[in-house]
Specification:
- The chain has four helices and eight strands, in the order E-H-E-H-E-E-H-E-E-E-E-H.
- By secondary structure, it is an alpha/beta fold.
- Strands 2-5-1-6-7-8 form a six-stranded parallel β-sheet, with helices on one face.
- Helix 1 packs across helix 4.
Length: 173
């Protein structure tokens, strides 16, 4: 599995770019999975639902399944958050894993930035950021820069950086 990240500050366009990259790269015939880092508590379960009741009762893991999808919820409790390499091992093998967040990990990343944010670039201090996707240009930055909305060119870049551009899409499976 190849991995590539999308990082940026809050409300910088990360999720929109992730969504478009998944659609674009999948349409090219590659299998794509994603990992999204959350800095806050989240819940895919809801109070009153059976699976939620199982967790509240003390189940360490709850697997919720239907004919359309399944989800495994694993309670960490007061333990350590699993690192990215551990989470990657849990995924079914695919051609590409796009990772949203995990900006401090060592994989290659593209940073999203919007002019209205006023935030400084992560790329200025992080050499694992190998490109920028923004609604403005940064003349002082010596890495590839893309218009944030140019999904095709960004997808081409991701496939090139991961080496998937040299594999015919029907050979990836």
């Amino acid at each position: 599995m190849k991995i590539f990240g999308v990082v940026g500050w809050k409300n910088s366009g990360k999720t929109g770019l992730m969504e478009r990259l998944v659609a674009e790269i999948s349409a090219r015939g590659f299998s794509v999975s994603t990992i999204k880092h959350a800095h806050h508590t989240f819940d895919i379960d809801h109070a009153g639902k059976d699976s939620h009741r199982h967790r509240v009762a003390g189940a360490g893991e709850v697997l919720l399944a239907s004919r359309h999808r399944w989800a495994l919820m694993h309670e960490v409790g007061e333990g350590n958050e699993p690192d990215l390499s551990t989470l990657l091992e849990l995924l079914t093998p695919c051609d590409l894993v796009l990772i949203e967040g995990y900006k401090r990990d060592t994989h290659q990343k593209i940073e999203t930035s919007l002019a209205v944010s006023g935030q400084d670039l992560i790329a200025r201090e992080d050499e694992t950021v190998v490109a920028l996707a923004s609604d403005k240009t940064f003349p002082s930055m010596d890495i590839p820069q893309f218009d944030l909305q140019d999904t095709q060119k960004i997808a081409d870049f991701v496939l090139q950086k991961t080496g998937l551009n040299v594999v015919k899409k029907d050979e990836c499976r």
